[in-house]
Structures are given as C-alpha cells and as structure tokens.
Design goal:
By secondary structure, this protein is α+β, with helices and mostly antiparallel strands. The chain has a domain of 55 residues. The chain is 25% helix and 29% strand. It comes from Shewanella halifaxensis (strain HAW-EB4).
C-alpha cells in the first residue's frame, strides 16, 4: 500500500486533472460557426454599391472609364447602373451619382 502522503497527492492530482478535463469540454471553439436557433430574422443581402473611378481615357469620339478596376464605355452598366456621361475627370450615372477622379490625379494633368 502507498504511504498516506503519496496517496493524498495522487488523489489530488487525479481530481485536478479530471476538473481540467471537465472545464475544457465546456469551452466553445471560437472558429466554429455559432449555433443558430429557428428564430432568425431574414436580412436582405446588401450589394456593395460603392464605386471608385480609377481612370478615364478619351481618344477622339470614344471614351473609356475604369471603375472598380473594370473597363466600361458610355452606355455601359456598372453594378446595374447606366453610364450616361463621361467627362474629362467625372462620370455621371443614371441614378444621379457623379464619380470624380481622385484630386491628386486631376492636379497632375496640366504639369
């Protein structure tokens, strides 16, 4: 039989190990998706409507614009919105928005 002191230490060790295992089992993995109940509300997926005018190229009567790193011409559609006017540093859209080149780009044109 083990001495009393060794038995007490062994029992304390086993109890603490068992306690750690129980605590670890109750922790939730933060990388797992959450548990969803049946009471979810429906949220309409929002489309990204922000547009960035990257550049404008005009040659003769044709003009091309780069919006969100994609090339478009007059009458083309960006995110479902028609391009109605292409100026030297602006683009007008059918929904009333007006996209302007970044000011630093327009300032360097004359230099």
């Amino acid at each position: 039989m083990l001495p009393k002191k060794t038995s007490a230490l062994l029992i304390a060790f086993l109890c603490s190990t068992l306690g750690f295992n129980l605590n670890a089992a109750t922790l939730r993995d933060p990388t797992r998706p959450g548990n969803f109940s049946g009471n979810t509300t429906s949220v309409k997926a929002s489309t990204n409507t922000s547009m960035v005018l990257n550049s404008i190229v005009q040659k003769g009567s044709s003009a091309y614009v780069v919006i969100n790193n994609q090339i478009f011409t007059l009458g083309g559609k960006v995110n479902g919105v028609k391009i109605v006017h292409i100026g030297k540093d602006t683009v007008s859209l059918a929904d009333g928005r007006k996209l302007t080149l970044f000011p630093a780009v327009t300032d360097l044109k004359g230099q």
